[in-house]
Amino acid sequence: MSRAPVQHVETCISVSPASPSLVLHINTTPETSLGLFGAGRKRGFEEISGLDEEAYARKYLATEGSVFFRRKGRTPRSFLWRVLEDRKLLEIQCVDLVHDKKAAKSESGLTFRVQLPAAIVRNGVVFADPEDVDSLEAYVLTASNELYTITLKRDLLTRETAPSEFDASTCVKKYSSNSLAFRHPYKLVAVSGLELFITLHDGGILRLARQPNENGTHWRETFYSEGNWGDTIRGLITLKRHQTVRYGDLELEPSAVAALAESPDGRHVWTVTLDHELKAWSTTTGKPIAHIDMLNQRFDEETKKLQKYVMSAEQGTLMQLVTLPTTSKRLTKSDQDLLYYIVLRSPKDNQFKFYEVSAPHSAGEEEESIRLDPMQTAATLIPPFAELMDTTMWHLEEFHVIPGPLWRDSQIWIRARNGKLCKTFTLTFSLWEKKGEAADLEPVWQNEWTSVDASMQTAEALRNCTDFPGDLEGGNENISTLPTEKWVDFLFSPGRFSTASIDTALSIYRKGRGLQAKSRIKGLSAPEVPLKERVTEAIGSKIVLKRHSTDQPDYERYQSSIQTEWKTFYSLLRDLHTRRHEAVGLALDTVDGLAWTVYADFVASIRATSQFEALVVNEHLLEGNGLQLVDESISTSIFPSNEAVHFAQVLSATKEFCSRLSPEFKEQFNNDVLLGALEDDTGDRQRSQKRVQDLYDTHDFSVEVMDDDFLALEHAAQPFGGLGDLSEAGILGVLELMQEDANNSGADPGKALSLYGNKMTIAIARETLEQHRSVLLSLLTLVVFMYGDLDQADLHPEFLSEIGPLYDAIATRLKHNVMLSWLARNTIAVPQAENTHGTKVDSITVTLLERLFIGDWDPKSKPKETLSEQLTKWSKQWTYGARLWDEWDGVTGHVLGFLIQQQSYELATDFQVFLSRGEESSSWLQYLEGRLLLATGEYAQASLKFQAAAGGMAEATKVAGSDTAHLLSAEEQNYFGDGHSRFYQHISALYEKLRIFSYTADFATLALDHLENGEDIGARSLMEIDRRKANPESPAHQRVGGALEEIDILKEYERRKEEIRGRLFTAQVETGRFAEALRTLSSIAERAIRHANLSTLIRTCIQKDAVPTLLALPFADTDVLQDADAILLSLAKKSLASGTGGGSNSISSTGATTPHYQILYAFRTQNSDFRGAAEILYAHLQRLRDAHAKQGILDPEEQTLVQAYVLLINTLACCGEGEGWLLADPLEGTEGKRRLVTLADVRAEYTAELDRRSEVLQGRFPLFAGVGGAGLGEEMDVF
């Protein structure tokens, strides 16, 4: 077989911390390691922008890394580590996916970045899980021959955010070995937290040991060498060798140890040397006790010299020591306690060898012996990767073995490389048959390998995404979306490209295009400009909109040029993205059975394929006799039935057909289909059938599909009998298989998602949605073509008769897919909790899908499922966990309510496309749309939505069940399900809060109308009370209780009316509807409230220069009239007392001062209160005379005082014969009593004033003036 079957897929997630506050920097440099270090800060703009490709690689791409797993039962236990920044930075972060629900705080949210003063040597990072302390220990060997011990204790591992102050010396210890000045380190191996081994270039081994109570500054050194393990002078002398192996700057001896491991019992150390030898050393005597060729080949000394093989120094995994599960029993030996196994991989021809190791008790006491027995001696176990990878040049980098009980159903995972191509393979095998006989392993080793499918995040896979715009022609006028919009959506889709990679590609692009290093967008400095805007600004910076010969803008050419520039930019980004996917490590969790691939800037869990995924990724097995070449157990797991084979053949034919269609055609067709899926009402056969025909006619398949394309489709359809045999059931079966992935069956495993589990779940959901959308669009494309292009006689009868339901089935799933994809593509900022010091930390950005629904993660598992299988199953269950068929309005309402609550109005507006329309739209959805329109300023449309929702919301007794996003407060919920009046009250309050008083008044009026019509006052309750009261047989206590209940109802009725009237009055006043406001005010029973509102009305009229309107108001109610007079009198007195004639509140919109006494005068005369009008006028007259007296200067031409006298005389004359009098109060600040002033008095005073003015005009000025001027002739001016 040229390609192996696929049973596992990788799902990549970015390893970048979600927030700077989640990064703890640990500096180990001597001058700063004892200082205090705070939490990570936001990286400055200039630290990212401006990087070239190599600088980017040094800063963000790991050159070495893996995942370390602590022992079972400890949490957190899975830690990703990477080496960055010219090997001077070690990054560590927890990648646990799940943890026990009942466990204490067990997940780590921090990323630890350990800065080293010198570069880390290759193979110079190892980890240990100390037995006595719950902590993680990292050991780092640098080029300066310094060994750093980094101890991360549990309290630090389980922190949610970095501490504000941190002393690096508490977790970093340094040890300097003078011995390494003579010998150079090759590899570092950790046996435990108390014992390390450093293999040396000359073949020696340096053992470092310490006691449990000693830290990383105390290590005891012991040299191991061929002659003796003692620390002797001989051990320090390097013997001359004729052949060496180049390893960087080192020259390694053939005896250099390339792999080292300690036996499970601690009695032996096994080593593999570059000269292809396996050695065992006794930890008791320090002497070698076994020494064989790795493949157990035996040569005499002469042949050995001639055929001596020395492997290269850049070796991956060469040896693994394993023990069988505790349930296993020894097959041939009696000493079970000392039994373990060695798995070797020889670099000669990548052959694997299995050895059984035992140390029998019959050995002498002084000299220890060991027994090493090869297993499967007759089999040559060489993986057929040359064929599987289609190359003769490949390199096996790593392998991991998980033995099964009695070596049955064991697993081996291998990572092989050919240049930059790196693939992972796995094999399930048994060394022994059930009867204890050796299994025939060689055929298994040759034919039963399965591969791991690459992540959908690779550059090659991204080209197949439905939203990839790189194959389109930008100048095509039929493409509805502009190139820039499509590229921005594609590039900034969450989890696809990192911010650093896009920024670096932008820097390279700007430099290549000769643009300025930093964007210059008006009004913003470079760090403030969002990355999206900087990219789009750079792309279009040198594109000019030219014109046709007709002087019309050539938009088609312009968009074509824009598309070309985007392709150029993407080619730069693609190269960076490819480097992000360079594999650097493979790790296997033997406890959970989950494998991990570590990439330069990703980490990927290797999960089992779902049944549907297996059909999609294994279509190559259907070619020729590929299926016959696959082992039956594997083919059965991929294709469990003939029906599954048929589904796979349909998918293969569909893919072949769509691959021949032009990108522009698929773009237009897909957009039309997706839009129709959201707008069309499914369930009408004829309408759906017409929709299929319309799709065919609109997109002109007859022109797009050429003869060669049709012949290719017919050929692809031959395996299932041709297109004529494709029935509706065949396509529906594929659709049902998609949904089976989400089958939520099994028992609760008691697990909860960790932080990385959230990321992984979302990543798998995105992959699932993208894969399903591609298949659904392809299936519908084929269905439309077959229905419109083929003769009915050539089609399956069921296909023709069920074309409507078939379209509905696909369109409905597309509708659900598009909505979930939208949630997975759009993000929202989520603030983190406060840290222990109470200070705020940065927010993190998550997708809406995670933010809204990750709490609904409810895993179900079956017995014996591995985490690899569970991960796929749980994620599929969660992705399609909501029953969108039955709960579409509930889910969309929840999303829309949440977005409104979060004030994400732009996202909420975009999301409206998913809401049900017409009769299918629920009252709650209409209410939510009204809330959104209200928030975005569309008040008129919001009013219509609220009125449309009123009927349902007035009867919605359980609105809390609809308001799953908790948009409504507990108090607001009381306004639902209690009649129209209460609902309209709520809407009126919403408008009032925004100070949109016109609609506040409208809805308050509606609320009052419904209330006064008796619709919402508990009419049924009152009728029941009346029935009980009218029944003479009712007990007295029931009649009394009924009466009290009736009183309570009526009181509540009056209270609600007063509340509504108060809001209505305020709105009417604010909108200038003063006459309506007065009517509302007059109906208010509470006098104090009425008086306060009347004061507001009068003051507002004066402030808005609406005095004529105020005077024209019909004060029919005597009490209201009296209150209005009193209010105006109070204002007039205050203004007169201020000496301005008007208060500070009397400035009209024109800037003129409003004299309050005139308003009161006009008000009283209009209401025939002439005496009252005369009183305020006389008070004004007194103020004028007092002011003139204080000035001491009389202008005889000034007529204000004279006019006041005339007006006062006329007003008193209007009082009637003999009624021309008033009561005058003394001026404030002067002594006197209230006195009677008649019309005659006023006339006499007026005459005196005229005389005085006449004297002045004749040139006779007063020698002194009468004081006060308030008397009537009692004091006179003397001229």
From TrEMBL:
<feature type="domain" description="Nucleoporin Nup120/160 beta-propeller">
    <location>
        <begin position="77"/>
        <end position="613"/>
    </location>
</feature>
<feature type="domain" description="Nucleoporin nup120-like HEAT repeat">
    <location>
        <begin position="896"/>
        <end position="1102"/>
    </location>
</feature>
<dbReference type="GO" id="GO:0005643">
    <property type="term" value="C:nuclear pore"/>
</dbReference>
<keyword id="KW-0813">Transport</keyword>
<dbReference type="Pfam" id="PF11715">
    <property type="entry name" value="Beta-prop_Nup120_160"/>
</dbReference>
<dbReference type="Pfam" id="PF21486">
    <property type="entry name" value="NUP120_helical"/>
</dbReference>
<dbReference type="InterPro" id="IPR011047">
    <property type="entry name" value="Quinoprotein_ADH-like_sf"/>
</dbReference>
<protein>
    <submittedName>
        <fullName>Nucleoporin Nup120/160-domain-containing protein</fullName>
    </submittedName>
</protein>
<dbReference type="InterPro" id="IPR056548">
    <property type="entry name" value="HEAT_Nup120"/>
</dbReference>
<dbReference type="Pfam" id="PF23300">
    <property type="entry name" value="HEAT_Nup120"/>
</dbReference>
<dbReference type="InterPro" id="IPR059141">
    <property type="entry name" value="Beta-prop_Nup120_160"/>
</dbReference>
<feature type="domain" description="Nucleoporin Nup120 helical">
    <location>
        <begin position="689"/>
        <end position="799"/>
    </location>
</feature>
<dbReference type="InterPro" id="IPR048884">
    <property type="entry name" value="Nup120_helical"/>
</dbReference>
<keyword id="KW-0539">Nucleus</keyword>
<dbReference type="InterPro" id="IPR021717">
    <property type="entry name" value="Nucleoporin_Nup160"/>
</dbReference>
<dbReference type="GO" id="GO:0017056">
    <property type="term" value="F:structural constituent of nuclear pore"/>
</dbReference>
